[in-house]
Design goal:
Two copies of one chain form a homodimer. Chain A is 72% helix and 0% strand. By secondary structure, chain A is mostly helical. Chains A and B meet through α8 and α9 of A and α8 and α9 of B. Chain A binds a DNA duplex through α3.
Chain lengths: 198, 198
DNA sequence: CAGCTGACAGATTTCAATATCTGTCAGTCC
DNA sequence: GGACTGACAGATATTGAAATCTGTCAGCTG
């Protein structure tokens, strides 16, 4: 029942931190700014997050989780053809990243800095995504659509690495260029041929 | 006949510049330093390179060309099985990059900064590498070992992009980690299956 | 006269003083 | 007594003046 503006919660602090990051950028966003935005002393913020790094990592985690959840639906849809599902999943990941990077480049750069710092949260996120891919590959192998020599997870990881150019932030610049769509198609087709049972 | 220490040539300037970069790093290497190392005034350096950026780009180009030439031999060896050749070529590229990054990380970081600046030289280099791959793919298609739906160059570009994690400097950190060899194998196997005629 | 020098203007970088921030904690307030 | 404050020490960032660098060019030199 506690109304938002009354109690100071981790959630409220995270929201304020996102806002401060959006306004000031990652280099100039301070804990004092966050506290000021919430109308409290910065000591109170440290009651909920042990360090500034922990606060920033929590913001990263929220952001990364939003992407994961959008894709989880495609990965889990066991009814559909695994090849089509894989294609859609990879395209959705590419599209999501590309839209984020294109719509608000400054905010995207902010999150790039944050995730660079947040080793743990990123590792978890990547593990989650590879897990989703593993599910699709395993479904494909079980249905006879795919044939792979080793464990499904090895193949999933290979798929993830091979498509890095279309989801890894370090390539964000290239996502604007004209030919990328075709490059993406070519890579995905090549990978699907490699997966297909013969 | 002109002996090295007498005349000031572009070549000598490039060598001195590499040395200065190795010593001082990319941030603190100045044209004045290069001139001092050569025992000339910095005005003389500008007689051979219009700007500091042009000088640095020339250094990048030399460095990139060394890598290209090492691989060209594998790509051009028309006698060998294209699949084996492709495997070797990709492994050689990975190994070369990994060795450079591992042996002298500081120097590698220097060259990462240089190539980041040198858009043109890098684009040429990448085009060269994709050209070499195209040759291998075309040979494979002609010999009946590979079957691809589109032009060989599209496929070559897809191969290059799909293996980015194992040659793109932005992943240099990961090349030290234990599992990379296996990750590389998994990606290459998947790609070769995608290329193979059935 | 071709190649080099060195002084110069404007741009960039360095450095040290100054201000701000992080993280702690004794104490205040419901 | 549990949540919050605000002063504090040490670490980090900002700032502006001084030093250095880039790129040019008139003149020297062999």
């Amino acid at each position: 029942m506690a109304p938002t503006p009354e109690t100071l919660t981790a959630e409220r602090i995270l929201e304020a931190t996102e806002e401060v990051l959006r306004r000031h950028g990652p280099a100039k966003a301070t804990v004092v700014d966050v506290a000021r935005a919430l109308g409290v002393s910065h000591g109170s913020v440290y009651r909920h997050f042990r360090t500034k790094a922990a606060l920033r990592e929590a913001v990263s985690k929220r952001w990364l989780d939003r992407t994961s959840q959008a894709l989880a639906g495609i990965a889990a849809d066991a009814e559909r053809d695994p090849a089509a599902r894989l294609r859609d999943w990879l395209a959705a990941l590419f599209e999501a990243k590309r839209r984020k990077a294109g719509d608000d480049p400054e905010l995207f750069a902010t999150y790039m800095v944050l995730t660079d710092e947040s080793g743990g949260a990123v590792a978890e996120h990547l593990a989650d995504l590879v897990g989703q891919l593993t599910r699709i590959v395993r479904d494909g192998v079980e249905s006879g659509a795919f044939a792979v020599p080793g464990p499904a997870e090895t193949e999933a990881r290979a798929l993830f690495h091979a498509t890095g150019r279309f989801h890894d932030p370090c390539y964000a610049r290239e996502w604007k260029q004209p030919g990328v769509e075709d490059e993406f198609e070519a890579v995905v087709e090549l990978l699907l041929r490699g997966l297909a049972a013969r």
